Amino acid sequence: MKLVQLKNRCRRTRPLTSTNIVVLSIIAIITAIVSCSKDQAAEPNPEPPPESVTVENVSYTNFARTLFESKCSSCHVAGASASGKWTFSGYTSVKNNAATIKNVVLENRTMPLGGSLTSQERELLAAWFTRNTPEN
Ligand code: HEC
C-alpha cells in the first residue's frame, strides 16, 4: 500500500508549460554556443599536414626554394665565390634567370658544381619550369 502511494507521488510531475519549454530551449542553445566556442579556444586549428610535392603542384615555396638553398647558395649567395655569375636572393633572382638556370642544371648539367641532384629533384625541378616557375 505504501509503495503504491509512493509511485503515484512520483508520477505526479507538473506538465511543462510553454514558458518552461522556451526557457529550456534558450538554455540549451546558450550551452551549445558556449561549449562550441570553448572547444575552439582549447584546440587552435592545427596546421594542415604538409601536402606532398608532386609534378602537378610543385612550386617555389614547396620545393624549389629549398633546393636552391641547399644545392646552390653555398656558391651563389651575395659574397660567395660564384655570386658574380648568378646571385641567389629569393624568388625573383631565380625567376629573372630561369632560362639560364634551367640550362645549366637540367640541360648542360654543369650545376650544381661539384654536386648533383637526385632523379626526383631533377624531375620536380623540370616540372616546375614546365609549370612556368610558380611561386606558390
Ligand atoms: C661549388 C660552387 C657552386 C655550386 C654549389 C653551384 N654553382 Fe653555379 N656556378 C659556380 C661557378 C664557379 C660558376 C661559373 C662557371 C663558369 O663560368 O664556367 C657558376 C655559374 C652558374 C650560373 C651562370 C651560368 C652562365 O652560363 O652564365 C648559373 C645560372 C648557376 N651557376 C646556377 C647554379 C645553380 C642553379 C646551382 C644549384 C643547383 C649552382 N649553380 C650551384 C659555382 C657553383
Automatic annotation (TrEMBL):
From the record, what ranges are coiled-coil?
A: none
Q: Which organism is it from?
A: Sphingobacterium olei
Query: Domain named Cytochrome c: which ranges?
Result: 59-133
Where do transmembrane segments lie in this chain?
16-35
What GO annotations for molecular function exist for this entry? electron transfer activity; heme binding; metal ion binding
> Which of UniProt's keywords are assigned here?
Heme, Iron, Membrane, Metal-binding, Transmembrane, Transmembrane helix
Its domain of life?
Answer: Bacteria
| Name this protein carries in UniProt | Cytochrome c
